[in-house]
């Protein structure tokens, strides 16, 4: 029965894709021979939006296929290292305006999760969704305490739908990579795996709530960024209750200007928030599209950002941060050899790669960028160029850096929408140089020693005992080694003894045979036979003698 359902679902997807003419994507691949088969099984002769571009038709098809495919389109729009620009631009238009599900279903999920009726928890609850996304939708409400909140509710049966669709996506990706070199080049299986991992985190609202709470802690009492409060008593895996915020959508540029907001300051603060999250906290909001960002314009000269929807967060290791900082600085100094060396040092490129060849490829990709003014140079597009070049040298995909690249593109696009003259380098360079100085300078060494000192003092009394134990253990290992060495010596002696005995036994046997032949052939002359017999006896006896070894 499950196989029949999967087949029915596959036919539905095929019908939608063919109707929008998306079978054309097979044309440049060996799978082009399947186009007639796809059309035959679509059972549809109606064409939709044939006058539109391929990117627009793909976007419309994903909307028709439903929430999971809309989310996939949003994710693909950020993978400009894989997806052509015309398609990426169109998919970027997929916003969180999905058809809402009925409010009575939302109420049923909330009541089941909280173990109480809506009336027992809220004094008011809006049945009209405030917003509807591919995974969940949100409703305005007021708690019994009088606090205004928003309630986020997962779509009914969304986990089941996700698993069904992802199972098929994994199978199709494996099949595509098996038969298409283009699919292998684009690493379709990795894309689907990354998408699977992202969705797995998004369908548990406790993870989003924890992310929100952690980001709020990082920016507590900050005038740069405000993150709303989580109400943990009313948060479950399928329901999350969060403080309702009031602010101007970041995308409403005209309204911000009308409110007298200092747009340069707003853009600069956005860049500072990004670099603070990445380099200070190693924990950054990775879904910073305009729908998730608002502005508190109470103080127009010092506008404060407000961030919501922390379902997708990125984290970086210290090595990742050093790699990024050094790469950015080397890029603006046009030190392409250093960029190449950084990739090898990080282990992302095999150390047998030719540095001069890799350096030349990076130079060819990056030099055209310097034809623009500094204010026009994009950090995000630099990373795209860098990753595309490195991929030709078999660099493995680094998911954390892909998320960062996506976020950086958002930040840059948003910053220049707010203030077209934004020079990201002017804002970022001092921050990066200071961060690197703090990481490797004398103060950093002092701070590290200061941080480790209590642990060292705690372990100090144990050091003599640890040294004795290690010396004793080393002695035992040496005894084992000596025993093994003795066994190997005995084995070598045995082999030499065998070779000695074998060699002399063969010689002695030869002389014995010769002695017999001489005696039979020359019975009147017994001297040669006797001499050979004596030699035979000598060598046979010698084969039994012990041998000397060094």
From TrEMBL:
SUPFAM superfamilies named among the record's database cross-references: Protein kinase-like (PK-like)
Alphabetical keyword list: ATP-binding, Cell inner membrane, Cell membrane, Kinase, Membrane, Nucleotide-binding, Transferase, Transmembrane, Transmembrane helix, Ubiquinone, Ubiquinone biosynthesis
Listed Pfam families: ABC1 (PF03109)
ATP-binding listed as a keyword: yes
GO molecular function terms listed in the Swiss-Prot or TrEMBL record: ATP binding; protein kinase activity
Record EC number: 2.7.-.-
Domain ABC1 atypical kinase-like: 93-343
Enzyme class: transferase
Pathway recorded for this protein: Cofactor biosynthesis; ubiquinone biosynthesis [regulation]
GO-annotated biological processes: regulation of ubiquinone biosynthetic process; ubiquinone biosynthetic process
One Gene Ontology term, aspect cellular component: plasma membrane
Active site: 287
InterPro entries: ABC1_dom, Kinase-like_dom_sf, UbiB, UbiB_bact, UbiB_kinase
Positions of ATP binding: 130-138, 152
UniProt keyword Transmembrane, yes or no: yes
Purpose of the protein: Is probably a protein kinase regulator of UbiI activity which is involved in aerobic coenzyme Q (ubiquinone) biosynthesis.
Family: Belongs to the ABC1 family. UbiB subfamily. Belongs to the protein kinase superfamily. ADCK protein kinase family.
Official protein name in the record: Probable protein kinase UbiB
